[in-house]
Specification:
It is built from 7 helices and 4 strands, in the order βαββααβαααα. It is an alpha+beta fold and about 190 residues long. α1 runs antiparallel to α3 and α5 packs across α6. The radius of gyration is 19 Å and the shape is flat.
């Protein structure tokens, strides 16, 4: 049995930043710049930014994804990263970081600025969102892969379809859907 080393698994960094209210526009420009710089590094998978819903407390949640720890480390120890972080001084009041492996829980968890355990939506909301994401992906898999998988053994066809759906579900569908429905998930 092949075992995947933890260092070769995707890595997600969740950063919670409280921005100085007078610096929100400068911070928005800074995030575009640092994210563009990160995208130039090997293994970069993307970034999601969850902007504050409450304008009296300007907390941003940044979710950065790399394909493996070594590539993330190359970015986080680079002179480019250090330069961008130095530029953020005066923009950010407080910053907390939480490294997390990829997984389903990340879809539904947001860091809490109170120091308490991160909140999750109600169970029925997670189930509803899962159905909303999975059902169209299964239809898509059947439409796209069905003709290609004809003639293969049933279990092999199912494995290929499940792999296709899981790949799309993990990224980009669930992160996108969670962002779009955050007003309902996190009222």
């Amino acid at each position: 049995m092949n075992r995947v080393e933890p260092e070769a698994q995707p890595i997600t960094l969740v950063i919670s930043e409280v921005v100085e209210p007078a610096q929100v526009q400068a911070y928005e420009a800074w995030t575009k710049g640092i994210n563009q710089a990160a995208s130039q590094f090997e293994g970069y998978l993307g970034v999601d930014i969850i902007r504050p819903r409450d304008h009296t407390f300007s907390e941003y949640v940044i979710i950065v994804k790399f394909d493996q720890y070594a590539h993330f480390r190359n970015w986080a120890t680079s002179a480019t990263y250090k330069n961008w972080m130095a530029q953020s001084r005066g923009l950010v009041v407080s910053r907390s970081r939480q490294q997390s492996p990829g997984g389903l829980a990340l879809w539904f968890m947001l860091p809490s600025h109170t120091g308490q355990k991160p909140q999750q939506p109600a169970y029925y909301k997670m189930v509803a969102l899962g159905v909303l994401a999975v059902y169209p992906l299964i239809l898509l898999a059947n439409a796209l892969l069905g003709p290609l998988l004809q003639g293969l053994p049933g279990l092999l066809s199912l494995l290929i379809s499940v792999t296709f759906v899981s790949a799309l579900l993990t990224y980009p569908v669930m992160p996108w859907l969670t962002r779009r429905l955050s007003f309902w998930l996190y009222p």
